[in-house]
Structure formats: C-alpha cells, structure tokens
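Q: What does the assembled structure look like for these inputs?
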Amino acid sequence: MNFPAELKYSKDDEWVRYDGDDAYVGITDYAQSELGDLVFVNFPEVGDEVTAGEPLGDVESVKAVADVFSPVTGVVLEINEDLLDDASLINSDPYGSWFIKVGSISETDDLMSADEYAEYRGQ
Amino acid sequence: MKLIFEKSIPGRGQDIFPACDVPVKLPEAPLREKKAHLPEISENEMGRHYTALAKRAHGVNDGFYPLGSCTMKHNPRIDEKMASLPGFTKLHPLQPASTVPGAHELIDELEKFLCEITGMAGVTFQPAAGAHGEFTGLLMIKAYHTDRGDTERNEIIVPDAAHGTNPASATMAGYKTIVIKSNENGTVDIDDLKAHLGPKTAGLMLTNPNTVGLFDPNIMEITRLVHEAGGLCYYDGANLNAVVGIVRPADIGFDVIHMNLHKSFATPHGGGGPGSGPCAYKDFLAPFAPGLVCKDGKNYERAEKSIGNMTGFYGNFLVMVKAYTYLLTIGKDIHTVAQNAVLNANYMQEKLKDIYPIAFDTTCMHEFVIGLDPIYRATHVSALDVAKALLDYGIHPPTIYFPLIVHEALMIEPTETETKETLDEAITAFREIYEKIKNAPETVQMAPQTTPVLRLDDTKAAREPHLRFDFD
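A:
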C-alpha cells in the first residue's frame, strides 16, 4: 500500500498536503481500499468553515457511507469538482484526488508521518 | 424480460368495459401538454407480466428471509382478512365520528394494548413509518424542553451502531447528532456517553437490543445518566420483536418510543408501505402529542400543546386493524414471539460459530452478526459474495455491511416464524458455502448461478444509475 512520505496522515485515514499556509485534504489509499468502489462524495461549499476532528463531508461506496473528517480547522478555499462527477478517481488515484483545499488554518489534529501511519494501519 | 412499456401497443387495452359514451369536457389549464406514457396492454398480458415479475422476486412466501434488522416474518393471513372487511376499507376520514364508533374503539383498544406492551401512557398513530415515528418523538422531546424554557439543548446522542434513520431524524428535527462509541462488547461505552452528556443534551436515541443483537446490560445506568443530565430517552422500537411481552421500554427508563406496526405487528413490509410507526409516550409528554384524537366517540380533541399534525387524519388505519387482529390473536402469549425469535437466532448462531467468526460472541437476542473480515482477508471472499451464494440456495441474503462497526458484516435475523427444519436447511447452506470458500473460492465469488439474473455490477448501477425508461 502506498503512503507518500511528503504527506501527513490522520488516524481517521485522511491525508494532508501543505501548500504554503494552505492544505489539500484527501483520503488515504488504505481508506479507499477498505471502502471499496466509491460512487459518491459529498463536500462542503467554498467559504464553509471546517473543524479539526469534525466531518467535512462523506464518501459513499457500494458497501457504506463514511464520514470524512477534517484534519484541520480552517476555511474551504476550493473543492475538487472532478470528484463530484467521478468518485472512482479516488480509488484509482487517492493522493491525486484531493477533496478540498483549506486556508486560514488555525488548528491541526495530531498528524502522523507516512511511516507512523503505515505502522498504525499495520501495513 | 421486457418492461411493461416495451410490451405496450398503441390502441390495445382491456375490452371488458365499453368505451365511455358520456361527453367529458375538462378545463384546459391543468391538462398535460403531452399524453402520459401509460402502457396499453391487454388484461391477459398484464396478468402474465406481473406474474413473471413475482416469479423473479423473493418474498417470505418464497423462502427463508433472514434480513437482519428488518424482521421479515410471516404475517398471519387472518390479519389481511380482517383489514379487507368492507366495514373498515370503505370508511372515510371525514365521516362524523358518531358514524364510526367501531373504528375509534379499535384505535382506542389498540392504544391500550400498545401501552401495556411498552409501559407508556399514550400512543399517537399518526406517524406513517418508523423514521416518521422517530421524527415525531424527537419533536415531542423538543417541545417538552422548549415548554420548560430549556432552549439550549440542541444535541441528540446516538451510538455508532444505530440505524441510519436515527441521525437523520435528529437532523430533521433540528438537532446536532453526537455519535458515541460502542465498547468491545458491542454495547454503549458508558465512559464515552458520560463524556458527551451535558447541558446541551436534549436526549439519547437507543435501539435495545441494538443492531448487533445485544441487549445493553447497562441500560438502567444509561437512561439514568441521560436523565441526570436533563435529557430524555428515546427508544427506537425497530427491534421490539426481541423483547415484546418481556421487557417494557418504559420500565428501563425510556420516555418515548416508536413501534413499527408494519414489522413487529403483522403488516407485510419492504414494498414501500403503507406502514405505521406509532409513537408511545409517558404521561408528561402527552400535552405535546400530535393530531386529533377522538376519545368519547363523538368529538375530536387536540392535545393542549400539540406539536401539530404529522400526517392527515389518523395515520394508516388498515395497518392498525392488522396489528389489532394480530395482538388479539396472540393475546397473552405475546412473549412467545420474543422467546422464539431469540431462540431461533441463538440456534443458528450456535450452529455456525465454529466456522464463521461471530462479531460479538455471546448469547444474542433476535439477531446476530457474522464479521467475515478474517475470512475476507485470507480468501478475498467477501460478505457480498456469501450473500450472493445464498441466492443459489433459495435464501434471501442477510443484511450486509451493516452495522458499520463490524467489518464485512452479515446480519442474520431468522424471526420467530421459521421452523427448525428451515433453520437447519439455512445452516447447511451456510456450511456448504464455507466449504466452497475453503476449496473453490471462485465459485462463491461468481455466485449466483441459478437466478434469473446473475451477478449484477452494483458499482456501475450506483455510478451510472438508469432510473427512467427512455420513451424516445
């Protein structure tokens, strides 16, 4: 399983990629693999506030609907509209498929390095 | 097979009734611009069409239907018979109460029966479904807090094993849902509950026994803690079948409850209704009850601080007739429903637990959950594959991938109306499938092989849903 070293990881299986003061957020390879074929995503809107540890939206697979938790507190700057049209991109490219870009970040969950996350998930 | 629209031939139709010879003139404004696409088909062909559909479907009449959390039991035919009596079917809700005393007597008596079963003080029959009952109960809880001037309470606590309707109903009622964890035994984690109780707690919604089929051993402490924090306790009656006639929700600290008459009390369900989700409440919530009630056979009354109407009139009356008939038929033996439901589930669990991993391996209530995850990790045979393989045995699959707290869940609820022979056949099917998982897993992954349609691409169906017939 692939956990790129340049990303940070939450215990709820989200990844964070920093871009200056802003951050892109998505779900990990492990998360997409556990959920199976994804068919739908539900995002906040641009301008919404997200809170670390609280759901920012959800993903739906043929098995289940799962909350996606925000690893940071901040304001949504952008959403990845490609995923609204084709959720399968998350399965094929979980780290290219960012969900939202967050700015004005005031708080961040305790995040793990790629190695720590791999160990946490027993991979 | 062809859709009925594909079988339609313009100009064809039934020929029993002569053509209408009365001139009909309708006002222009509400008329459709284009004629509706109604199928035109002879009575004979239509009969065959629906018979063919019925042959491709699976109902309780066709075979075992252990769909967990759904209580797909046999509904006695006498209940249908009573509900089809013209004295009931031809009533109109706008008839003066004085012309329908029998119907009101039936509603009143059924209310008494349900109060006896739940320990509650009153029942509203307005809610038309289980989730509608949840919504009603939550609005009553909200009205109660508001009436006391306690307007800061905006949180409803729901365990992570709950039915999805619970957080949905809480959201509909304007509450924030606070999800609490289950402990390693599959029941409410008391510490997590304590951590989330507070001045914002409006109430707790709990299904007991819960969705893993376990009766919460700490239920008295749970409801006490919620009450001490100033919240009320809502009982989701989805699993009432497991305790009916044995445990009364009011006695274990619940203030308001909904029941699914179309599930526990003898109306066939799963086909989209009509259902009935009456809400029973303790005395102090009676002022907030919805709808109009006729208590003296003559006049309608509205509760003093009623939350309003949840539906038109009384709710789905004929579903009440079925529940009333069912309860009169079973009478004082109602507890045997729960006893046999629990016995059947435990029998199946015991006969399968040596090969299938049971999610919470203890004596269960009316249902139990297999957590197939270890088998899936080792063989790549999933809960979905096992469910599909059961189709080849003429068995409706259990609920799969629910509750969410169990990975690769198969949730099995045999119900009380199945014989030991049927359970044994199902156990044999499960055991044969297990042998196939070990020796020829690909045969399970390719199941079913004997059904009218084989394995469907459910991912494609969800990603590219094709929900309408394309006429052009």
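DSSP finds four helices and nine strands in chain A.
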